[in-house]
């Protein structure tokens, strides 16, 4: 296994709605995901996150697992509805108390807390007023960021504002596959801008509270044209513009890319004076979530989009059907390095993982060799990018625990730790032990 630089950060990641449970405890308000999962037909087999991994009550056990794993950092998310049940107003003290306890437990275990402020669980009260389509939500997000930093900022060094704003816009506002369940197609674009504006305003709030390290986490996917035609190449460029550049150019370059291919030439009507200056506030790192490349072809005329998604023909796939292409992570890190140059802050792989449903055998052991192979190959892919000039500071596995996987419910298992959702028994998998060994081997 190639060695990564001294000081490289190893970690694991989760999100609040996917693991916490306790949805009605400590004054927590409803989120858009509470509403979505309660709507028949939205989540596979009607699964809900009412209990999930019961992390709210079992966090000490989970921190003990992180200590045993040997990670340097733990990326978790703070549930906005737990801090501000209505998405505005004063902080809910009992809700913040939980994150106080979690942060202290992590520090006692020698694990750096790395909270993400927004991992898709918008307070339902804000959605009722327009959600991320409403500009005011960006300002409410900054208010919430300030409350979280005021309570936790004396012990938290690393902050992440948003998780995967592209996915949240695309699946939640454009296609209706995730909460809040809107299918507005290109009319969802204001949700992109308002998330980025919220990021900029929250960054300012975190800086004002003394935060020394602020990041934004985007999902990235190298785009592969399905064929050699000019039309397929144009489709790939359009997809890359929507997925990568729309959410990266404003943050790093202070300008939106040309959206003429989407029928949006000239000034975007939802961008106000001063917005881009706020969005482009300097960052200390850029989070990279990578799972797989995307293959596209010229549009087939069935949607207004200038591309169509095509399947990979020869790649192995995970249980989610996602192609396993470790070289795509190397390419992602190198493309960001080449395309953004001096404007690019250090990179952090803030999510990378795979869904395989392997469970305990008769002896109780979880032999998830496919995940072991996946992790080894993707860590090697990071090392290859570093060797070729990418400044990558950390790698965090998705995920520590099997969890509630959004619209898939409990049918997809990404964890290093198997969770029996009936008994809440946690069983570290072979991949847990392999990752722990890899971390040990990488240390001086």
Automatic annotation (TrEMBL):
Its EC number(s): 3.2.1.21
Protein family: Belongs to the glycosyl hydrolase 1 family.
Annotated keywords: Carbohydrate metabolism, Cellulose degradation, Glycosidase, Hydrolase, Polysaccharide degradation
Catalytic activity: Hydrolysis of terminal, non-reducing beta-D-glucosyl residues with release of beta-D-glucose
Record protein name field: Beta-glucosidase
A Pfam match: Glyco_hydro_1
NCBIfam families: BGL
Coiled-coil features, chain-numbered ranges: none
């Amino acid at each position: 296994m190639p060695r990564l630089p001294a000081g490289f950060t190893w970690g694991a990641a989760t999100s609040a709605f996917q693991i916490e449970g306790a949805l009605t405890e400590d004054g927590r308000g409803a989120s858009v995901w509470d509403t979505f999962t309660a709507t028949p037909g939205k989540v596979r087999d009607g699964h809900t996150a009412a209990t999930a991994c019961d992390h709210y009550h079992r966090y000490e056990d989970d921190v003990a697992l992180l200590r045993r794993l040997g990670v340097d950092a733990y990326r978790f998310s703070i549930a906005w509805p737990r801090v501000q049940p209505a998405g505005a107003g004063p902080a809910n003290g009992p809700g913040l108390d939980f994150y106080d306890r979690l942060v202290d437990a992590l520090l006692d275990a020698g694990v750096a807390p790395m909270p993400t402020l927004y991992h898709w669980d918008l307070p339902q009260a804000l959605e009722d007023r327009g959600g991320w389509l409403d500009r005011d939500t960006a300002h409410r997000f900054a208010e919430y960021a300030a409350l979280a930093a005021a309570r936790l900022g004396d012990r938290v060094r690393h902050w992440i504002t948003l998780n995967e704003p592209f996915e949240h816009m695309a699946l939640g506002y454009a296609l209706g596959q995730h909460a809040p369940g809107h299918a507005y197609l290109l009319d969802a674009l204001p949700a992109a801008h308002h998330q980025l504006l919220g990021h900029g305003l929250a960054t300012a709030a975190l800086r004002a509270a003394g935060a020394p390290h602020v990041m934004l986490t985007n999902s990235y996917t190298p785009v592969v044209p399905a064929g050699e035609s000019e039309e397929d190449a144009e489709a790939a460029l359009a997809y890359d513009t929507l997925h990568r550049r729309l959410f990266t150019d404003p943050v790093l370059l202070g300008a939106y890319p040309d959206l003429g291919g989407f029928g949006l030439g000239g000034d975007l009507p939802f961008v106000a004076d001063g917005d881009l200056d706020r969005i482009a506030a300097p960052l200390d790192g850029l989070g990279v979530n990578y799972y797989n490349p995307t293959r596209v072809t010229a549009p087939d005329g069935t949607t207004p989009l200038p591309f169509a998604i095509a399947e990979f023909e020869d790649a192995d796939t995970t249980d989610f059907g996602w192609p396993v292409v470790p070289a795509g992570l190397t390419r992602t890190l190198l493309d960001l390095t080449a395309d953004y140059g001096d404007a690019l802050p250090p990179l952090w792989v803030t999510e990378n993982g795979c869904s395989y449903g392997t469970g305990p055998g008769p002896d109780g052991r979880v032999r998830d060799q496919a995940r072991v192979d996946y992790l080894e190959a993707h860590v090697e892919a990071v090392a290859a990018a570093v060797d070729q000039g990418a400044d990558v500071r950390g790698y965090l596995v998705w995920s520590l625990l099997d969890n509630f996987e959004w619209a898939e419910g409990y049918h997809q298992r990404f964890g290093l730790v198997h969770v029996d959702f009936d008994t809440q028994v946690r069983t570290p998998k072979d991949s847990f032990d392999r990752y722990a060994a890899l971390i040990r081997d990488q240390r001086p």
